[in-house]
Design a protein that fits this description.
With 493 residues, the protein is of the alpha/beta class. The protein has three domains: 73 residues, Pdz3 Domain, CATH 2.30.42; 212 residues, Alpha-Beta Horseshoe (pyruvate-formate lyase- activating enzyme), CATH 3.80.30.10; 177 residues, 3-Layer(aba) Sandwich (Aminopeptidase). 34% of the residues lie in helices and 17% in strands. The chain is built from 14 helices and 16 strands. Strands 1, 2, 3, 4, 5 and 6 form a six-stranded antiparallel sheet that branches. Helix 11 packs parallel to helix 14 and helix 13 packs across helix 14. It is globular and about 85 Å long. The protein starts with a strand and ends with a helix.
């Protein structure tokens, strides 16, 4: 059982009588022990919750959108205690912290749930076979694994845990089950480098493509190593040798597999004075948070920003401004919130909703809200990328797609969705009349897209990442003209 500490106001859980202090026992008959159980079994569109209150067992059935939350919060993010590390690694950075710091600094986590939620690396020594089976059943992916070496005896020596060698078999179990894996090798001078590193990289290739990247990072050493294994830092010359060894092996992987797979972290380049590889070398920066390619990524982003400083706006914000200028010129007041909410995708809709509610409180006469996005098509397997354009008055404009949501659950949080849909259809019809081909088919789905904020809320996708800025800007102007026409029609009614 897991204690519920808060229930969101107006949430589905609150509407079904669940209260803070209740104990969550099961979802759809499955016992809930931690956050993985909770998230996995909550994904269904119909969930039966069993709770206990004052010794009485209660149950309720909640119908919702698939993967939608129901508004429960628990004592800890994991809904359980963190699993501590059972190893005594010769390179452990926790053991190298100075004395007298806060207690949490000295906690060693080794928790597969943190790997899934936050990208932490795990050693596998904390896991039993049933834990691996649960990861496979729930298809938790990716799993970040601290490998260090594929030599079982050497792994035991490095991690000082007799299980550390035998648990390497879990790599095969996870790989065979289709679980995406990402590996890390903490490289220790004179221990698992040179020939042993070659062996480890060769051994790990059998897990490709499930194992899609491996980072090689130097052991971090501090001045606080009293009584610890005598490790020495890599010299600049040795760092250059590691770079060459791993790069040569990666070149072979590119030839044989089409991907580099193995990467050294930025420290090796900095210490050796070796020039950083270019942006494309890092193949999507799958291990950026492990310090792999971080400097190249920063350099690329910095230079990209520099190139746009003399041009005021090159973003979806500029697109929205074009629409705003047109509508204002037509005699309607417009509030343009230029805040970016998608620096990280996680939580972006909630941040957008918070800002929308602040503006609605500040400007209570707002009748229509428009959340302007840029769509993403991605690319086909052969590399083909499609650019949605329409020719309007002899000039290309990025195509526009209006998104409309609904809530068909028995206990809807978005009960007035039909009013929003009516506005979306009205805008779609006007756009098709004014600029044939400019508007893609309206996208309708059981999601709210923050449209429950008002009876006149819209989400609009203007072009994709392939469209030029001019195509997107022109589409913004045409979107403004279309909205203005609808507003004038409403004013005349």
């Amino acid at each position: 059982m897991v204690k519920i500490v808060s229930v969101g106001k107006r949430s589905r859980a609150a509407r079904h009588g669940i209260e803070p202090g209740d104990m969550l026992v099961s979802i759809n008959g499955h016992t809930i022990n931690d956050v993985l159980d909770y998230r996995f079994y909550l994904a269904d569109s119909t969930v039966e919750l069993c709770t206990v209150r004052d010794g009485r067992e209660l149950s309720c059935t909640i119908r919702k959108g698939e993967y939608d939350d129901i508004g429960l919060e628990f004592e800890t993010p994991l809904m359980d205690n963190k699993h501590s590390c059972e190893n005594k690694c010769i390179f452990c950075f926790i053991d190298q912290n100075p004395k007298g710091m806060r207690e949490s600094i000295y906690f060693k986590d080794d928790d597969s749930r943190l790997s899934f939620l936050h990208g932490n690396y795990i050693t596998l020594t904390n896991l039993k076979r049933h834990d691996i089976e649960r990861i496979i059943e729930m298809h938790i992916s990716p799993v970040n694994i601290s490998i260090h070496t594929t030599d079982p005896e050497l792994r035991v020596k490095m991690m000082k845990n007799k299980r550390s060698g035998q648990v390497l078999e879990y790599l095969g179990m996870l790989s065979d089950a289709g679980i995406k894996l990402r590996g890390q090798i903490v490289l220790c001078k004179g221990v698992n480098d040179k020939q042993n590193l070659d062996r480890t990289m060769n051994d790990l290739l059998k897990y490709y493509p499930q194992l899609d990247s491996v980072s090689i990072v130097p052991a971090g050493l501090t001045a606080h190593r009293e009584g610890l294994y005598p490790l020495e830092p890599f010299t600049p010359e040795e760092c250059a040798e590691v770079i060459k060894q791993v790069t040569d092996f990666g070149d072979m992987c590119v030839t044989g597999y089409g991907e580099r797979i193995f990467f050294v972290s930025d420290e090796f380049y900095v210490k050796s004075g070796t020039p950083l590889p270019d942006y494309d070398f890092w193949e999507g920066f799958t291990q950026l948070e492990d310090g792999v390619g971080m400097l190249s990524s920063f350099k690329y982003e910095f230079e990209s920003m520099l190139s746009t400083l003399d041009e005021e706006e090159k973003s979806v914000v500029a697109v929205a401004k074009r629409a705003k200028d047109v509508i204002e010129a037509g005699g309607f007041g417009v509030i343009h919130d230029t805040t970016r909410f998608d620096e990280t995708y996680s939580g972006s809709y909630q941040r957008s909703m918070d800002a929308m509610q602040e503006n609605l409180l500040k400007y209570p006469t707002i009748q229509i809200t428009v959340d302007v996005h840029r769509d993403a098509f991605g690319e086909e397997d052969d590399g083909t990328r499609y650019k949605p354009v329409a020719e309007v008055n002899g000039e290309n404009a990025a195509q526009i797609m209006i998104m409309a949501g609904c809530d068909l659950s028995e206990d809807p949080l978005f009960p007035d969705w039909r009013e929003n849909l009516h506005l979306a259809l009205r805008l779609q019809q006007k756009g098709d009349l004014l600029y044939p081909g400019l508007f893609r088919p309206l996208f309708f789905a059981q999601r709210n897209y923050n449209m429950h904020a008002t009876h006149g809320s819209l989400l609009v996708e203007v072009g994709t990442e392939v469209n030029t800025q001019r195509e997107a800007d022109y589409a913004g102007e045409l979107l403004g003209e279309t909205i203005l026409a609808v507003l004038n029609d409403i004013a005349e009614e």
